[in-house]
Amino acid sequence: MTLPPEAYLWFKSLHIIGVVVWFAGLFYLVRLFIYHVEAKELDEEIREAFYNQYSLMELRLANIITTPGMILTVSMATGLVVMEPSWLTEAWMQFKLGFVFLLLVYHFFCYRLMNQLKNNKCNWSGRQLRILNEMPTLLLVSVVLLVVFKSSFPTNAATWFIVLLIILMALSIQFYARYRRLSQSK
């Protein structure tokens, strides 16, 4: 069976939509984990209510948004590869698939953390979870650059300047978050 040419555009469009939904879920899910862990500092009378609410929000986000986004992403990517199987021989695609594999591991690791949080067995601190929350961002940037530049990634001074700006931006966000935490503790 041969697919019509417009099938490629449908696969590509739905793949991009799936990526946006999946990443939105991954970004917010770990943010909920941070709030969940930091609820330990609340008064005992209200702590349990917050734990229950965060557990419910995490489960709904994971099952209704994040995982369906992942399934849409992977299934539409499969359709794209079926239409363009030669991509599998290209280095950029092999690296991309490696990063996607890491994202899948991250996704299922989030389910593990979610279960630990629900059962009050999570030993991660808010700070550790904030660092974990940066992982999908790094993977997203890597995948987008691979897809856009493919095998012709520019390595001139302007490119490295942009990379440096991105790193500085990420560090400034971390420093600001730390500054805010320190200011609140005074």
UniProtKB/TrEMBL annotation:
Pathway assigned to this chain's UniProt record: Porphyrin-containing compound metabolism; protoporphyrin-IX biosynthesis; protoporphyrin-IX from protoporphyrinogen-IX: step 1/1
Binding site for heme: H15, K96
Keyword DNA repair: no
Cofactor(s) it depends on: heme b
Primary location: membrane
EC supergroup of this enzyme: oxidoreductase
Annotated localization: Cell membrane
Residue stretches spanning the membrane: 14-34, 61-83, 95-114, 135-153, 159-177
Catalytic function, reaction form: protoporphyrinogen IX + 3 A = protoporphyrin IX + 3 AH2
Coiled-coil residue windows: none
GO cellular component term, pick one: plasma membrane
Keyword Nucleus applies: no
Membrane topology summary: Multi-pass membrane protein
Quaternary state and interactors: Homodimer.
Family: Belongs to the HemJ family.
Role noted for this protein: Catalyzes the oxidation of protoporphyrinogen IX to protoporphyrin IX.
Protein name: Protoporphyrinogen IX oxidase
